[in-house]
């Protein structure tokens, strides 16, 4: 850059010296003045280039300083991260002993699950699994009166009072209780409903109870519905059956309207086609009539005209009238 500027300065000095010499010799020349002007313009262009070069140099120097500062900052950050990583690795972890066993569910989850299955843990009212809990136990069989008398006669009394036997012992309270229980059993059996009327009074009579959902209930539940949606490729999240049904009805209505519009268009096209055919038929008929008339007129014009003979028809008519 300095060499170029020096050459341009020398050119300006030479042109200026030559012009001054020509003026001093009273022999000025326009060419020398133009050379001086050209040299001055070249010098000005070189000075501008020098200014641009200096600006670029200053910018490059500033970028170099900024790059060096950023490199230093990056190195500091990396060294800090390395030291922190080393400290983290060297730090010992604190292990707390488990106070109680840990499970994947909480107490609230367990209570919520128990609340949901509570309706399946006890049978509903009236469900007896086919057992009749209101019936009394079967009565005990009592010995017949003849057998009781026979056993009493075979067993002699152990004591005698002046040769006369003691009277028979009175029936004990336990025997009276058994007799009353048997009578109550007979009465309750007599007042019990017949077997063919029990289902009418209690529809759940004889129903078998299971403490878990049966397969039919599971297949008809919400989880089975979700599984069906998954199988058909539908995401249950955000699925609205009413919205789907509404869209389906709208599509069916739009399809019906489209079919009706297509039918009307076909009928309109058929009607236009019939009208066009009728018009063409009328035109052909009219053309045929015109052609026939034209041919008839041409044929009539070619015949020689026959001379008509004048007849006095009026005179004949007058004679007839007389």
Automatic annotation (TrEMBL):
Chain ranges passing through the membrane: none
Keyword NADP included in the entry's annotation: no
Record bears the keyword Nucleus: yes
Region listing for Disordered, in residue ranges: 120-182, 232-322
Subcellular location: Nucleus
InterPro entries from the UniProt entry: Mediator_Med4
Primary role: Component of the Mediator complex, a coactivator involved in the regulated transcription of nearly all RNA polymerase II-dependent genes. Mediator functions as a bridge to convey information from gene-specific regulatory proteins to the basal RNA polymerase II transcription machinery. Mediator is recruited to promoters by direct interactions with regulatory proteins and serves as a scaffold for the assembly of a functional preinitiation complex with RNA polymerase II and the general transcription factors.
UniProt family annotation: Belongs to the Mediator complex subunit 4 family.
Subunit structure: Component of the Mediator complex.
UniProt-recorded name of the protein: Mediator of RNA polymerase II transcription subunit 4
